[in-house]
Design brief:
Elements: E1 2-7, E2 15-23, H1 27-34, H2 38-43, H3 53-61, E3 68-69, H4 70-74, E4 79-81, H5 82-86, E5 96-98, H6 112-118
Parallel strand pairs: 1-3, 4-5
Antiparallel strand pairs: 1-2
Length: 119
């Protein structure tokens, strides 16, 4: 069984849930999240130390286990960050571009390569 994550672009030692690939049975994550009390679930809805939501919860469930990142397996820009890697354009080795935070694709349709690939 393995789980592959995208790495956090501004803090590469952290993981993010921008893109994930799963093999094997990880249903225990969904089941335990589904069974959480509302009070416990609310803890994951609060922004604390750049950890929030499903990303923080899955990371907590997998703490201490090895998790491959797409960067480790396929290279730095396999899932590239628009803000970090692609503001000047595509490099050609990106499998996907993440638009994390503010400024999503539809805010950037004036950029040729985004308009051509998004529409």
């Amino acid at each position: 069984m393995c789980l592959q994550w995208c790495h956090e672009f501004h803090q590469p030692h952290l993981l993010c849930s921008t893109a994930m690939a799963w093999t094997g049975d990880h249903s225990h994550i969904w089941h335990s999240m589904h069974e959480m009390t509302p009070k416990r679930r609310d803890q994951y809805d609060k922004w604390e130390g750049k950890r929030i939501g499903d990303q923080a919860y899955i990371e907590d469930c997998k703490r201490g286990q090895h998790v491959d990142t797409f960067r480790d397996l396929f290279g730095e820009r396999s899932i590239a960050s628009y803000k970090v890697h692609c503001k000047g354009g595509l490099h050609g080795d990106e499998a996907a571009v993440a638009f994390h935070g503010a400024r999503k694709m539809d805010d950037l349709l004036h950029v040729d390569w985004i308009r051509e690939n998004w529409i």
